[in-house]
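Lab meeting notes turned into a lecture example. A postdoc, R.K., suggested we walk through two folding results consecutively so the class can see how the record format repeats. The first protein's sequence and structure tokens come next.
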Amino acid sequence: MNYFNVFSNIMITKGITRVLISDLQRNVSELYPLELHDLIEELKACSIEDVLSNYDEESKTIVQDYLDFLLEKEFGFITQDDWDKNFPPLSYEYQDYNILSNIFIELDTIDVLQTLQQSIENLEIKHMVIYCQRALLLEEFMEIDRMFARSPLEGIEIFSQFHETIDNDFIHALDKNTARIYNLVFYSCEKAPFRAKNSLRFTVTFTGESLKISSCGKVNLDYFSTNLPKVLEAVNHNSCLHKKIGIDVHGNIKNCPAMLQSYGNVKNTTLEQALNHKDFKKYWNVTKDDIKVCKDCEFRYICTDCRAYTERTDTDHDGRDISKPLKCGYDPYTGIWEDWSTHPLKKKAMDHYALSDKTKAS
């Protein structure tokens, strides 16, 4: 007897109309018809010979073609015996020993970073994302990096408004004098002033978009990520809020700067105190399997969830918002993508968040 075994790095996510097969080693995901999922389930339970015996001659040819396809794509392999017990599936457990892993700060002046510096070190936060609603100066970029020179902080990503002094010399000065900045995004830039060299230590992106905090939460194929740690986090926890903390432009401590609920202000509350608030972690373990509509979507483990902007249609028994993200235009029941901002059923929620036409389009 011959048996088909799925490689442990292959993750199969069943949706209502399609199945997503993710190769967690190659970091790629591809869509396939549901019948392929059904065949794989049959092959898990029975030998290839037994599966083929269930079909007529015409269907056998189709099944064999599918099997050849699965082998060609390296989604699995064939053994002579039922050795499935010798090939244990990949564990989907997620381990993150940090108290907090990420901090997102909506920055006005860099003075707030000095207020947060000790807490960031105490909580051993590894990654920081900074959004500044103005153009940061070269000295400010370098001061941000220098401020955390002796902290556990490993990486800093900065979104800053573009200004005309940003040129090759500006970027190379940052490359030479900083160590933790790994990604720079300059927004409201009509045309990239130059092409950043690949030899830089960090990545540089210029975009014409006028980014705002309200721009977050968009669900788009371009933002999907088949990254093993991210996928495992999404299976077990909320893919956006788990072990994250945010500071809005007024210094309010939140799960995300775009969310309404605050757990204190940096002027009189430490990050440690905010973290101990009884409601701070309430969304940490809300997965896509808990979210209406999302739970039926084939993209649910490679998509980032958003609790800041939702359709506001459903809550669970703990009072948590489990509605579909507002800025998602995908319908898993039809497999069709549409412009979320023009959907009539979303208008009430958009009015609630006071999203202007400009914001909707961004």
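The second example is placed directly after the first for contrast:
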Amino acid sequence: MKNNDFILFAKKNNGEINGMTCGWVTDGILWNKNVKMVFVRKSRYTYEFLMDSDHFFTAKFDDEKLLNYFGSVTGRDEDKIKKSDLKIVSENGREKVEGALENIYMRKIAVFDSSKAEFLDEEISKKFREDEDAHMIFVGEIL
């Protein structure tokens, strides 16, 4: 698995969906729940969707052109889902992308602001010290 082979999707309460290639993704067990954590800068358009949504989902792809497109173009400027011919369907009230290698649907259970983190590793602190465009960490319970 590569770090950047996921597209993160979030759906606003009004039904609008946006996606972005998400390189910082991890999963595991937290609070006795199977979770996935995604790290999104506050400046990203998808951040607005994540803040307005109770759920989000990831879709895994091995299409480098698609992943690069979703990582380099903002949804503020164009409808990336429509332009890329992705088909998002709802199954049992959960969205997924047809043709994705894997779809994981999550319920948002926590949000952390990384600018408030205390970095103990000096190298990480120098390289990733957060500013006003800090990464927000969204924790989703895998459903």
